[in-house]
Structures are given as structure tokens and as C-alpha cells.
Design brief:
The complex is a heterotrimer of chains A (about 575), B (about 300) and C (about 180).
Chain A (H helix, E strand, L loop, with lengths): L1 H8 L1 H20 L18 H6 L34 H32 L9 H9 L6 H16 L1 H4 L6 H16 L3 H8 L4 H10 L6 E5 L6 H10 L2 E5 L7 E7 L7 H4 L3 E3 L6 H6 L6 E4 L6 H9 L5 E5 L3 H13 L5 E4 L6 H4 L5 E5 L14 H4 L2 H20 L8 E6 L8 H10 L3 E4 L7 E2 L3 E2 L2 E2 L8 E3 L1 H4 L4 E8 L2 H14 L16 H20 L6 H10 L5 H5 L1
Helix pairs in contact in A: 2-4, 6-8, 8-9, 18-19
Chain B lengths: L3 H10 L12 E3 L4 E3 L6 H6 L1 H21 L3 E2 L6 E2 L22 H9 L9 E4 L4 E4 L9 H4 L15 H32 L6 H20 L32 H17 L16 H12 L14
Antiparallel strand pairs in B: 1-2, 3-4, 5-6
Chain C lengths: L1 E2 L2 H15 L3 H5 L6 E6 L2 E6 H7 L7 E4 L1 E6 L5 E3 L4 H7 L3 E4 L1 H8 L4 E2 L3 E4 L8 E6 L4 E7 L3 H6 L5 E8 L2 H4 L1 H4 L1
Parallel strand pairs in C: 7-10
Antiparallel strand pairs in C: 1-2, 2-3, 3-5, 5-6, 7-9, 8-12, 10-11, 11-12
Organism (chain B): Dacryopinax primogenitus (strain DJM 731)
Subcellular location (chain B): Nucleus
Protein name (chain B): Ribosome biogenesis regulatory protein
Chain lengths: ~575, ~300, ~180
């Protein structure tokens, strides 16, 4: 609920900004001759004080497909103008002048209304009608970006305090549907993914999340402690004209680069292996893994080697790190990085991760940075927005479940046996569901604290699924909260199978609920029933031995049914 | 009792031994063969084939037997014996004629030069003894030099000059040479036979080379160590198709270290390269030390004549 | 993965000895953890024994690299040092060359070291001697072979080549595809 109050706080500012936006638009329209629509404004109105410092770079403006400015004439005021006939490309030339004047007038009206809204807190917003929505969806009546923005803002406001702002005879789901459709078209997501991500957050925060996905994350580097120290590296880079500072209190090796006069991936220091270009989020699983010198560690999906080399550095080049990657091409880059950073204790191999306990087991720690949908790194790879479908998520989570079991099986159970599961995805079915599955399938495994003092707790329950209190020990990182890629980290401790299993079963019996955990029956030997079975099989064996033909099975069964344990002997006679 | 009637009656039943033929038969009595050149009587052959053939066979057989009985006969304890004359019919060969042998090197040369083959008489005239003697063999002429009781020694002959041995050696050498030539001729003939027309001389040579290489490779790995310790020549071709044997991956590291060190020390004892001359790896770099010392002392360096060298 | 044969060992050692001289003994006979040389897909790796024993479990087609790669054997059986061997060479190098900051980038692009860029050089370096190239702040940048001895170098003009380039850390970017 914290977020919600945050949203409320910033509402006034939001209105103010909106006004400014309106002015800007008006100005754009005035100077617009070639019918291109004005650039979309950023939905910055939600930014809180918390955010201000974590987003150092100026937000970039998402570029939109140019559409005809004339369509702004069907701006959705709450007046009857929604009914106005659509403008076509043919008649647009003739009408442009007239429209311009009209638009100015409308803008003025808008402004006045907005000001009134700011002051009076009245509901000025109504959802578009069903026909309108259909038209938008089919593309016959494209919507102005500004209008989209406005509508989204209003939807968020309404959903934030539904009782107060909602129009009568409108359901909440209608607003949600409208908002989702708008998000999908405004940010360019497919409908499925938009809904999936939207469901993760409260309404206001969801918008923040989508907004932050449009911004690049800061460039970060990791000092290679095998070769140099952070202070020395920073000094050397500053001498080269790189503007940087430590990434935060949580890491002793990270540096954040603000600007650089030289390519940061080709300095002599980089080539000499003094640092690694690495996203801040990829420090986290290694910190959680906490490898110790002399251990045997497996990195199941290691390319391009940022985490592997970090592990190796933490182990001070002792013990063994197995760096595995399923993609042969990517192992080249991995090997290059391993050698460049001077990690001598690394064995690079190219297996499917699922083969792993068969190839070799007995690891002290396993890091599984699972292949994922990449919904946490949309800012890096925007193609995710469009190309992920429900099927992808099913396949991926299936693979992740297989991998995590393999990872757990590769570890020798002990007090320090650790498996860290991480993804650069924020969806629940790639993260909490996978962990819950692993806990269910391997009762000797339990979640432990990740050792990361920031980040949100994982979902203990999500949309009817209950994952249990334990799941609070996992950590989620979001671009809009931590200014790093969306990330998930869970740390599992693998205990001895026997003892832990019973304990876990008792626990799970206590907290049975939701669909997590199969109903576990008490399994034990039933001596009486067994004795009967043993006797029967002995009899069969004897008869067979003597060459006597057995009675048909049905008969025997019938006989067995009739007789109880003790009568069996008489039956035999 | 006169049996002449009976005889006549019997004779009348039997056919006459006198047979008339238009053209007399060709009889090669040595093979007991008679060939009838008379044309067949077509009419009779068509009408009664069996009878006609029967009678003809009988008649011809009769003629053959008549001829046989006309041979001169000698009596013997086993009865009369006739000596068959030599055959007059020549039979064809069972096998084809042998192909002509490929000419020897000499024959080729002789044919090219038009040298006629001359029969060499086995006996040669001995001027001294005024008799014909064998050219070779026991008491042959070619052993003359060896068997002389007195031999002229050349002027510059060494002390241990043995004219008999000398002569015998020369003779064995000639024999060996001839044998070599003979074998070469055979080989050449065999080769010509195996590759009649398919291969030109270049290919021939290549094939030989391959064969030779194969033989060589075979011999190289035919030692107890599979050729491992054999001396290698500069630029010797690597053996192909020979299974390489490597050390096991997980042998004792100590042993491995020892072998490595051994290899390393071997490297050093090898030719001291020019570039490594300057840096002998002693703790003290002598040249540097001398220079250092001389500079520190501040004394001007002197050359061999003791003159002060100016820098 | 297999141990080197005698021939291969000779080739590797003689190449290494060109840079580290007698210090090669310290590579073979280490005081800390025992190390060994292993050949895998024509590449020679310098690995600690424990690492090697674990890596044996990885099947040959799946093993990509282990320990430190020293270099590779060409098809004709010659051994060529890779830039990945720089760590080993830098640690035991007998002769070193330091280059000035303005010479760093040209060297990292694969050029020879000219006299103008030469900062310092180990005294008494003979010609055609393998040397490790450092930047002025002692970061190893690559290795090469001297064109002239230290004494001859003094007389050269500034554009003359003093060290022939053999490998530099820029290859991590330039030759990533062929190097590994």
C-alpha cells in the first residue's frame, strides 16, 4: 500500500505536469505543418523523491509512429465530440487550417478543464464506449498519443481510488481492460505480456515499471580483484576521462559509469582484464552465492562470464569453478572473458545444463542463472515486448524447473551446500513458481536468506497461488525501484535428504493451503498386509518349483479376498 | 564228315570280309583311326537310317581290321604281336603357343644394332696344348689364370698380392654381374607383363615409389619397440596409419614433472643458441657487474696496450 | 585432453624459455600447487593438478577450456603462444619492455613498438629475445621479440622498430572468434 500512497502524494504534481504537457502540445500543434504528431510526453508524473536520485539519466522520449495530427480532433473530452467522423488523408489537407484554429480552442478548453479538475477533484473522465474500443483495436480510429497518455492517467487515478473517482455503472474490470489496452499500444507490448506484467504490481506502480523499461540502465563495471583494486582502477579510468563513482554501499567492487570520453569496452585496463562490463543486477546472485576459497562451484548457464569471473575472483583463484553454457558459440566469449580476467581455476564446458548431475556432481555451490524470458531487461532488449507468448512462458518455466532440480542434485548436501537461482525476469511463473516446485520436489531443500539487504521480498502468494511464508526470503529487484534490471534471486540450502524430508513434510502439513504442495500421505510399511503378500509369493514359488500348475489369477485373487491374513494357511492346504 | 557244307552255310550267314569302297579309306593305324571320305548315300540314309549306319560302320571297321591284320606280325609267348607304325595324322596342340619372351636388355640392344646371334662353341682351341678344351667347367679354359704355376706380378702390386685369388675374384665378379643382369631381365620382364599398356613410365615410377614407401614403413615399425627408439632422419616423413600412444591423462604428477624437467634439461644441453649466449642464468650477470664496478670506480678504462680510452 | 608428448613438450618449453629463460623450472616445479601441461584440441593448457583431475569428467567434445591456455599447435606441428599466456610470461619474464602511454594504443592495435614509444627496457637485453611489454604503470600489455639489443637501441632513430609485436591484449577483442 506504500506505493499507493506514493501515487496519491504525487498526484498534484502529476496534474501540474500534465498542464505543462498540454501547453507543450499546443505549441507543437501550432508549429506543425507536416501533420506529424507531436512527440509523446513522458509519464513522469509518478516520480517520487525516492526515484529522483535513482534515475540519474534524463528519460528518453519514446518515439512513436507518425500519425495524422488531425485525428487529435476526436480528443476525448467528456463532451459528445467522440462521435465526430474520422478524418481521412484525402480531406485532411483542406480541413487542416480550420482544424488548427479549432484545436487551439479545444486546447484552451482542455486546459481550463484540467485546471478545474486539479482544483475541484471532480470526475471529468469517462471510458470510451465499446464501439470506440473496437475501432481502436482494429486500427480504424487511431488514438492520439497525448490522448492515450491522458486516458491512462485517468484510469490510474480512478483505479487508485475507485469509489471516489469511478463513473457510476462502470465496473473496475472495464477500467483495467481499457488501461491494459492503452499500455499495450502506448509502450508497444503485446496484450498478453502487458497483462502479465501489469498483474505484478499495484496499478500506479505498474505504470512506473513500464515507464522505466523505456529508459536505459546505467552502465556499471565490476573491478577484477584478481588484477587490481577498485580505488586504483577508478583512478586509472578517471585519468582516461571516465566519470564514475562507486555503485553503492552493497558492493565493494562495482563502479557506475556516468560518462566516458573513451569507449569503456576498449580501454587498455579493460583489455588487461582489470574490470568487466557487467550489469549491476548480475552482481546479486554471486553475492548471494557467497563462494568461499577452495570450494567446487558450478555456474550452470554462465555466458558471457560476468558472474563466473566474479565467483572466481571471490574464491581468489582457488578451488574449481565449472562454467557451463549450452550454447557453443557463446562459450567462446565466455572463455575469452575468463582468460582476460585471469581466472585460472575455471573449467569451461559446453553441456545442456540438464545433463549435469550425470556429468559430475559433488559441488559445494551451484549458481543457476536460468535462461528466461528477459522481462526484467526490456530496456536492453525491446524485442521481448512483442515476441513473447504464453507458450514461451510455459516452455521456459518447464525448462527452469528441470534445471533447478538438476542444480539441486549436483550439490553435495552439507551445511553450506547452496544453490542460487536467479533470473532476469520479473514474472512469477519463472521465479516463485519454480522455487515452489523445487521445494516440493526436493523436500530436503529449504530457502535461506539471500544476504542481500535490499530488494523486495518475493511473492508469498500470487493470484490464488500460495507459496508460503518462506518465499519472503527470496528477493526481487525492479528497474523502477532499484534502478537496475528486473531480477530475481533465491538462495536454497540443500540439507541431508533423510532428515530434512520429514521435517519439511511436517511443516508443509501445517501450512497446507492453496495449490502448493501435494497432499502428502503418511507412508509406512503395513506389516500385516506385507506378511500376507510374502506368504502368497512363497507359496507360488514352492508350487512352481514342484512343477504344479498355479490356479488362474482370478481364482487366487478371489481366494485372497475371502481369506484374511490368518486363514491364508488353511487356504494353502 | 564233310563240314564244308556247314561251313558254307555258316559263311553264307556271315558277311564277307571283303569290302568294296569307291574311295579307299584314310587309315592312320597308329591311332587305330579310319576316316571315310566317301559321300553318304542320301536315299538310303533317309529310308533306313539305322541299318545303313550299321552296315557302314561294320564295313569301315572291317577295313580297319583288315589293315591291322595286314601288318607284319611277330610271334611271342603271349601270341602274335603287330608293331604299329608311327602316326601320320598330326593332332592340334592342347594349349596355345607360348608368348614370346620379352627381349632381354642385350637382345634389345643387339636388335637395334643389327647384331646377329652367334652360337658359341663349347670347345675352344688351346694354342699351347694343341687340343680343344671346354670353355668352362672342370678344367675349363676360363680357369687358366687360376691354375697357372707361374704368374707375372704387376709392377706396382702390393706385398700381399695373390694372383690366384685375384683371378678367382674377377671370375666370381663376372658371374655375379651376369646373375644380376639375369635377375634384372626377369624383373623387367615381369614388370612389362604386369603392366602391359596401362601405365606410362611416370606412373610406373610412382607406383614403385609407393610400394617402396610402404615397405619402408613396414620395416620401420617392425622392431620390438615399434620403431620408437629408431634414429630419425632429418625430414623423414611421418608414419601414417600408425596408432599413436599417449601417456595416460591421470598419471602421477611427480613423474610428469620429472619427465618435463628432463626434457627441459635436454633442451639446454642442446646447441647453445646465439641469442642465449648473453644471458647465462647465473645469479650474477658478470658483464653488468663489471660495467657497474668500472663505472663506480670512476677509473678510466684501459685497452690492451694500457692506453686510456676516451669516451 | 592428454599430456604432451616429448616432441610437443620440447616445442612448448623452447617457446616459453625464450621469454622466461631458466624460470621455466618454476613453472614446472611449482612450490605451491602442482601444475601440469595438457593438450586439448591442439591447445596447450597450463592447469593445476586438482583442476585437471576434475576436468577429466568432462567429455572431450564438451570441454572448451581449462586453466590457462598457453597457445596452440599449428597443423604443421609448430607451437604458437597466445595472448592468454601473458599471465604466465609476465610473472616470470626475464626481459621486459615498458612503453609510454602514447604508445599503448598503437601496440594494442597490433603494431610493432617503435623507439619513440619505448619507455624503459631491461638492461642487457640481447637482440631477438622474447620480451614482455608493459605499460608505464606495470600493466602487462603483450609480448614480442626485440629487434635490437639494448645497447644498439640507443643509437636508433625514433621511428625505428625496437620490439616486434607478437601478441597483445587487444586480441581479446580482435581475435575472439579464432583465439578460442
Amino acid at each position: 500500500m506504500h506505493k499507493k500512497s506514493l501515487f496519491d502524494d504525487s498526484e498534484e504534481e502529476g496534474q501540474g505536469e500534465y498542464d505543462e504537457g498540454g501547453e507543450a502540445d499546443e505549441f507543437d500543434i501550432d508549429g506543425d505543418d507536416n501533420f506529424e504528431r507531436p512527440e509523446a510526453q513522458d509519464m513522469d508524473f509518478l516520480s517520487s523523491d525516492e526515484e529522483a536520485d535513482s534515475l540519474p539519466t534524463k528519460p528518453t522520449k519514446p518515439t512513436k509512429k507518425p500519425r495524422f495530427a488531425a485525428s487529435s480532433s476526436d480528443d476525448d473530452d467528456d463532451d459528445e465530440e467522440a462521435e465526430e467522423e474520422p478524418t481521412t488523408a484525402r480531406n485532411i489537407e483542406a480541413r487542416s487550417r480550420a482544424l488548427e484554429a479549432k484545436a487551439i480552442a479545444e486546447r484552451a478548453a482542455d486546459m481550463a478543464e484540467a485546471a478545474a479538475a486539479g482544483a475541484g477533484e471532480e470526475t471529468m473522465f469517462a471510458l470510451p464506449s465499446a464501439e470506440q474500443q473496437e475501432a481502436e483495436a482494429s486500427g480504424s480510429a487511431p488514438v492520439d498519443v497525448n490522448e492515450l497518455q491522458l486516458r491512462m492517467r485517468e484510469c490510474v487515478k480512478v483505479l487508485g481510488d475507485f469509489k471516489k473517482f469511478a463513473a457510476p455503472n462502470r465496473s473496475r474490470s472495464e477500467y483495467v481492460q481499457q488501461l491494459l489496452a492503452d499500455i499495450a499500444s502506448y509502450y508497444g507490448y503485446n496484450a498478453f505480456l502487458a497483462e502479465k506484467l501489469f498483474d505484478l504490481f499495484p496499478v500506479a506502480e505498474a505504470i512506473e515499471f513500464f515507464e522505466s523499461n523505456e529508459l536505459p540502465r546505467p552502465v556499471t563495471i565490476r573491478t577484477n580483484t584478481l588484477r587490481t583494486r577498485r580505488r586504483e582502477l577508478a583512478q586509472a579510468l578517471i585519468n582516461r576521462g571516465v566519470n564514475l563513482e562507486p555503485i553503492g554501499k552493497w558492493s565493494k567492487v562495482g563502479l557506475q559509469v556516468f560518462e566516458s570520453s573513451v569507449p569503456i569496452g576498449a580501454t587498455p585496463e579493460y583489455l588487461a582484464g582489470h574490470y568487466m562490463l557487467q550489469a549491476a543486477s548480475s552482481f546479486l546472485p554471486v553475492i548471494a552465492l557467497d563462494p568461499q576459497p577452495g570450494e567446487r562451484v558450478l555456474d550452470m548457464a554462465s555466458a558471457p562470464g560476468g558472474k563466473t569471473t566474479y565467483i572466481s575472483a571471490l574464491m581468489q583463484n582457488t578451488g574449481v569453478v565449472f562454467a557451463n553454457d549450452a550454447n557453443k558459440e557463446r562459450t567462446k566469449g565466455l572463455t575469452a572473458n575468463v582468460h582476460r580476467l585471469g581466472c585460472r581455476n575455471v573449467v569451461v564446458c559446453n553441456y545442456d545444463g540438464r545433463e549435469f548431475p550425470k556429468v559430475m556432481g559433488g559441488f559445494d555451490r551451484v549458481l543457476l542463472d536460468a535462461p528466461c524470458s528477459g522481462t526484467g531487461v526490456i530496456s536492453k532488449d525491446a524485442s521481448v515486448k512483442q515476441n513473447k507468448s504464453a507458450r514461451d512462458f510455459t516452455l521456459l518455466s518447464h525448462l527452469q524447473k528441470q534445471l533447478i532440480l538438476c542444480a539441486i542434485d549436483s550439490v553435495t548436501p552439507s551445511s553450506s551446500a547452496t544453490v542460487v537461482y536467479s533470473t532476469c525476469s520479473v514474472t512469477v511463473d519463472e521465479n516463485e513458481s519454480v522455487i515452489a516446485y523445487a521445494l516440493r520436489k526436493r523436500p530436503h531443500v529449504r530457502l535461506v536468506d539471500t544476504g542481500l539487504e535490499f530488494g523486495r521480498e518475493g511473492f508469498k502468494a500470487f493470484r490464488g497461488k500460495t507459496f508460503g511464508e518462506e518465499m519472503g526470503k527470496t528477493r526481487r529487484f525492479y528497474p523502477h525501484v532499484n534502478n537496475m534490471d528486473g531480477f530475481f534471486v533465491a538462495k536454497l540450502r540443500v540439507g541431508k535428504p533423510g532428515k530434512r524430508a520429514e521435517q519439511a513434510r511436517e511443516e508443509s502439513e501445517d501450512e497446507q493451503g492453496g495449490d502448493v504442495g501435494l497432499p502428502l500421505e503418511k507412508m509406512a510399511f503395513d506389516d500385516e498386509a506385507d506378511a500376507e503378500l510374502i506368504r502368497e509369493s512363497k507359496r507360488k514359488y514352492l508350487l512352481k518349483h514342484k512343477g504344479i500348475k498355479l490356479r488362474p489369477k482370478a481364482k487366487v485373487d478371489a481366494a485372497l479376498c475371502k481369506t484374511n491374513g490368518k486363514d491364508a494357511e488353511s487356504d494353502e492346504e | 564228315m564233310d563240314v564244308s557244307d556247314l561251313l558254307r552255310a555258316g559263311a553264307s550267314k556271315q558277311k564277307s570280309i571283303q569290302v568294296e569302297k569307291g574311295i579307299p579309306l584314310d587309315i592312320d593305324i597308329a591311332y587305330l583311326t579310319a576316316t571315310d571320305p566317301n559321300p553318304m548315300d542320301e536315299e538310303e540314309y533317309k529310308n533306313e537310317r539305322e541299318e545303313y549306319l550299321h552296315s557302314m560302320a561294320r564295313e569301315n571297321a572291317q577295313l580297319l581290321i583288315n589293315h591291322l591284320f595286314s601288318l607284319p606280325v611277330t610271334s611271342s609267348p603271349d601270341g602274335p604281336i603287330a608293331q604299329l607304325p608311327p602316326p601320320t595324322t598330326s593332332l592340334p596342340r592342347a594349349k596355345p603357343l607360348p608368348k614370346p619372351k620379352p627381349p632381354t636388355r642385350w637382345e634389345k640392344f643387339a636388335a637395334a644394332k643389327g647384331i646377329q646371334k652367334k652360337r658359341r662353341e663349347n670347345k675352344v682351341w688351346d694354342e699351347e696344348k694343341q687340343v680343344f678344351r671346354d670353355r668352362w667347367g672342370r678344367g675349363g679354359k676360363n680357369k687358366e689364370l687360376e691354375e697357372q704355376w707361374l704368374v707375372e706380378v704387376p709392377q706396382n702390386a702390393p706385398m700381399d698380392y695373390d694372383p690366384v685369388k685375384e683371378a678367382r675374384d674377377a671370375k666370381t665378379k663376372r658371374i655375379a654381374k651376369n646373375e644380376g643382369q639375369r635377375l634384372k631381365n626377369i624383373q623387367r620382364a615381369a614388370r612389362a607383363k604386369s603392366s602391359t599398356s596401362q601405365l606410362n613410365p611416370g606412373q610406373e615410377r610412382e607406383k614403385l615409389k609407393v610400394q617402396l614407401d610402404r615397405d619402408l614403413a613396414q620395416t620401420r615399425v617392425s622392431t620390438a619397440s615399434m620403431g620408437k627408439f629408431d634414429k630419425k632422419f632429418e625430414g623423414e616423413a611421418k608414419l601414417r596409419g600408425v596408432k599413436r600412444q599417449f601417456d595416460p591423462n591421470e598419471k602421477s604428477v611427480e613423474a610428469e614433472k620429472a619427465t618435463s624437467l628432463a626434457i627441459m634439461s635436454k633442451l639446454d644441453t642442446g646447441r647453445p643458441s646465439k641469442r642465449s649466449k648473453g644471458d647465462n642464468d647465473d645469479v650474477l650477470n658478470v658483464r653488468k657487474a663489471i660495467r657497474h664496478e668500472s663505472r663506480k670506480g670512476g677509473q678510466p678504462r684501459r685497452d690492451s696496450q694500457g692506453r686510456v680510452k676516451r669516451k | 585432453m592428454r599430456p604432451l608428448t616429448e616432441e610437443e613438450s620440447k616445442a612448448v618449453f623452447s617457446k616459453l624459455a625464450n621469454y622466461v629463460g631458466k624460470n621455466l623450472v618454476h613453472l614446472i616445479d611449482r612450490s605451491d600447487t602442482p601444475h601440469c601441461f595438457r593438450l586439448h584440441r591442439d591447445r596447450v593448457y597450463y592447469v593445476s593438478e586438482s583442476l585437471m583431475r576434475l576436468a577429466v569428467s568432462v567429455a572431450r567434445p564438451n570441454l572448451v577450456s581449462l586453466g590457462t591456455c598457453l597457445g596452440k599447435f599449428s597443423k604443421s606441428g609448430k607451437f604458437r603462444l597466445h595472448i592468454t599466456a601473458l599471465d604466465v610470461l609476465g610473472q616470470y619474464a626475464k626481459h621486459k619492455v615498458w612503453i609510454k602511454p602514447n604508445g599503448e594504443m598503437p601496440f594494442l592495435y597490433g603494431n610493432h613498438v617503435v623507439k619513440a614509444h619505448l619507455g624503459r627496457i631491461t638492461e642487457d637485453t640481447p637482440e631477438h629475445q622474447g620480451v614482455v611489454v608493459y605499460s608505464m604503470n606495470d600493466t602487462p600489455l603483450g609480448f614480442g621479440v626485440t629487434a635490437r639489443s639494448t645497447l644498439d637501441t640507443r643509437k636508433l632513430d625514433p621511428t625505428a622498430i625496437v620490439v616486434f609485436h607478437q601478441a597483445d591484449v587487444g586480441e581479446y577483442l580482435r581475435d575472439e572468434d579464432t583465439l578460442f
